[in-house]
Every structure is written in C-alpha cells, then in structure tokens.
Amino acid sequence: MIELYSMPTPNGQKVMIMLEELGLEWKHIDVNIRTGDQFSAEHLKRSPNNKIPAIIDTDGPGGAPYSMMESGAILIYLAEKTRRFLPVDQRKRYDTLQWVIFQMAHVGPMFGQANHFNNYAKDGGLQYAKDRYNNEAIRLYKVLDNRLRDSQWMGCDEYTIADMATYPWTKMHKDRGITAAEYPHFMRWYDAMEARPAVQRNNAMATEIRERMNKAAESKPPVNIYDTKDNAARLAQATSR
Ligand SMILES: N[C@@H](CCC(=O)N[C@@H](CS)C(=O)NCC(=O)O)C(=O)O
Fold first, then answer.
1. Residue 154 backbone zone (phi > 0: left; psi -120 to 50: alpha; other: beta)
2. pLDDT confidence of residue 120
C-alpha cells in the first residue's frame, strides 16, 4: 500500500497520476498546507522540508516501510519498484530522466514563482519579479513545444514519468496565452494527456479532494505560507529539541 501525504497541487497530482496509471493500492492522506499541517512533527519526519507530497510505501525496499519526499524522486522510486514508465533502454531512460529533472528544476520552480508574484505577493508584487517569472514561463512553454516537436512524448517515444511530472504544471496554459496556433506540439501532447483515463481519474479526484479539504479547513485558522519568515520560524519551532 502506498500512503500519499499530500494535497492536489501540481506536485501532488503528478504522484496521483502515477499511482492511478500503475493501479497500485494507494490512499490519499490530506495534508493541508494552508492550515499548517506540513509543520506537524509527523509530517516533518516524512518531509523535513515541510512540503507535500510525501509517501510511505508500507512494503518498501527489504519489505520494510519506506518514507520519501520530493515528487520527482517519488516518481522514479515508483517506476523502479514496478518497472513501468521509465524505459530500460539506456538512451530512453536517460532521456526520460533529463526531462523529469528539467521539470523539477525549471517548470515547477519558475511557474511556481510566476504564480506567486501574479497572485499572492504583498503590495501587488514587484513588476520586475512578475516580468522575470512570466517571461521565463513563456520561454519554458517554447522549450516544451520544441521538445514535443522532436519527440512524441516528453522523455522519448513512450509515455513516461516525464509526462506525468510535467502535465499538472501546464494546466494553466490558457491563462498564460498559450495557443494551438503558436504551440501546436505542446497542444497535441496536452490533448493526448487529457485523453488518458488515469489522468481523467486524477482530475476528478483532485476536485473531490480539494472540496473535502476546503470543508475540513473551514474551522481552522489559515497559515500564510507565502510569508517565508514565518515559515522559517514555524520550522525552527517544530524542530527545536
Ligand atoms: N520540489 C518539491 C516541491 C514541493 C512543494 O513546493 N510543495 C508545496 C506545494 S506544491 C508545499 O508543500 N508548500 C508548503 C510550504 O511551503 O510550506 C517536490 O516536487 O516535491
């Protein structure tokens, strides 16, 4: 059984898609980062960086439970455990890993910063920061479009964890003005992703889980996770010995 400690953000959804593709027995354990669940002592044991997602594989290496953080590492772990969605052929395997790491190092962090400065930054955010991250996001869509011109899927000619890692981050493409006319290869891939039953199940579950978590959070005070100084203090307090 895979226990997924998470919330259906893009990083959470990549793991949900993989678990649905694999058909493994799994359950979602809600960790609401808007009410500070990521700072609980139990969650910090699974995820010392106070983030979601984290997993516990109750049947980990050597038959003992194994706990992990970092969505890219979790995808690689699940792919290796099941020998699926990470090709054995060495060229395809390293091509796939390059694009998983590209997602983790660029698409996630840059799109995340763009969302932050567009939607959450204090005092409307600095125009410089907004321009920097929005322009970088547009540039990254061009990298994705170019890659998908040259390759059927993100990693290689097979559907892999590189596709699952990238898709949830690109759901907001319309808001960024990404069109089929200008990014035809990206849009061909995006439509192929949305046609997959596991992706459709993920999207339906993400809505359900979000509603459940919003309801459960109604009685709890929210935590401003965008205040990084407060987050540093929360982590220091939660881990003081
Ligand atoms: N590189 C990490 C990033 C995880 C991450 O940034 N998670 C966010 C939600 S998508 C989070 O848990 N934020 C809570 C916080 O910063 O306190 C991964 O891919 O797992």
1. alpha
2. 85
Cβ neighbours for 80, distance < 8 A, ≥ 6 positions apart: 86
Structural domains present in the chain: 2-84+226-238 (3.40.30.10), 90-195 (1.20.1050.10)
Q: Which of 51, 69, 115 is the pocket-test mutation for ligand 1 (most atoms within 8 Å of CB)?
A: 51
Helix (H) or strand (E) holding 17: helix 10-22
Question: Averaged over 148-175, what is the pLDDT?
Answer: 98
Residue 130 has a pLDDT of: 93
* Residue 85, C-beta contacts closer than 8 angstroms, at least 6 positions apart: 18, 21, 22, 75, 79, 159, 160, 161, 164
Residue 131 — φ and ψ, nearest 5°?
Answer: -60, -45
Q: How confident is the model over 117-156, as pLDDT tens digits? A: 998 887 766 899 999 999 999 999 999 999 999 999 999 9
> Which of 4, 9, 11 to mutate for ligand 1's pocket (most ligand atoms within 8 Å of CB)?
11
Is a pLDDT exceeding 90 seen at residue 85? yes
- On whether the CB atoms of residues 11 and 52 are closer than 8 A, the answer is yes
Cβ–Cβ under 8 Å, residues 7 and 67: no
The two tokens of residue 132 are 């920097």
Residues 6+ positions from 26 with CB-CB distance below 8 Å: 1, 2, 3, 4, 19
Q: Indicate the angle between helix axes 184-194 and 197-217, nearest 10 degrees.
A: 80
CB within 8 Å of 129: residues ≥ 6 apart: 113, 117, 121
